From TrEMBL:
GO molecular function list: 4 iron, 4 sulfur cluster binding; metal ion binding
Every 4Fe-4S ferredoxin-type domain range: 32-66, 121-160
PANTHER family on file: FERREDOXIN-TYPE PROTEIN NAPH (PTHR30176)
Cellular component aspect of the GO annotation: plasma membrane
One protein family per Pfam: Fer4_5
Protein's name in the database: 4Fe-4S binding domain-containing protein
Amino acid sequence: MSTKRNKLKAADVLWTLFIAFLVIGVVYPIIGLIALICMLAPVVVGIIKGKRIWCSNYCPRGSFLGKLMQNISQRGKPPKFLNSTLFKTIFVLFLLSNFAIGIIKAEGNLTQIGFVFVRLIIITSIVGILLGVFYQPRTWCTICPMGTLSNVAIKGRKKLTSIEKKNDNNSMQHRGQCDQCPLKDTKQP
């Protein structure tokens, strides 16, 4: 008989992979290329599922911050600006710009590109730890660029879905009223 308490969740294990990634990434920077999975996954999963499932269940850094900070965090209230669209947009653009500059400077060298990923993750993890100490354990998740992009993708998906539904409803309402409609001569329900 399985209970919630006995059930092992991905988040219970993923934090160890995050630590391993950081340690191995410093020694073998090419391993940093694996970070692409964690950068793309929240957006892809968000588009497919329509929710931030990756962030809450499968993000190694989120798991790490949740485990590490749970007993250290002062659990203060985060500043409101961290949740503002303007701040998140500027933060995403800042990090992606630095990331792009690093990739360009690497000139196609995979080891150097891997190091760009490792360096970015180390720096942002330090920010995440500091936020976790002063505020909530996973305050980083509020400003995480991939979580922000995931939210944008989810909103885009919802907008497209509502447009498709609206178009389907409109086409159903006018069925048989067009000269080319094969249902023109049939009775309408």
